[in-house]
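Re: weekly structure request thread

Next one in the queue (147 aa):
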Amino acid sequence: MFRFRLQSVLDFRKQREEQSLAEFADIKRRLDHEMERLCGMMEDREKMTAHVNTIGRGDIRPTDIALHTAYIRRLKEQEQRQQAVIKTVEHELERKRTVLVETVKQRKIIENIRERRFEEYKAEVHERERKELDERGIINANKGGGR
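Done, posted below.
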């Protein structure tokens, strides 16, 4: 029966890979969420800009225009802060991607060793079986030739 001496190492590396993958997925979900927030902010700003353009055609007080303009400026500032948040999350995602790629490589190294060892084991078993059959053939030939 085949027994791989480094099986515990392989199991550990698989566990680390799963953990890295989960962390990567969490950060990816966070990035998606932050991107959705930015899109919502941009839509709000575009709607407000369109509203200001619409009301600017009618009778409107200058203070109302100033309030709307200040609100639009605030929305732009929020967008800029959100873009900074997104950049930070993107960098974090890239770091996790690097870690994930490295853990996959480490697992594959051990799996390749396992495969080589298994092939060697199969070759050894095959060689033993061939020798046993040869010995049986010799024994049977000697038994049959001695009569």
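The mean pLDDT is 92. The chain has one domain: 8-113.
Next request, please.
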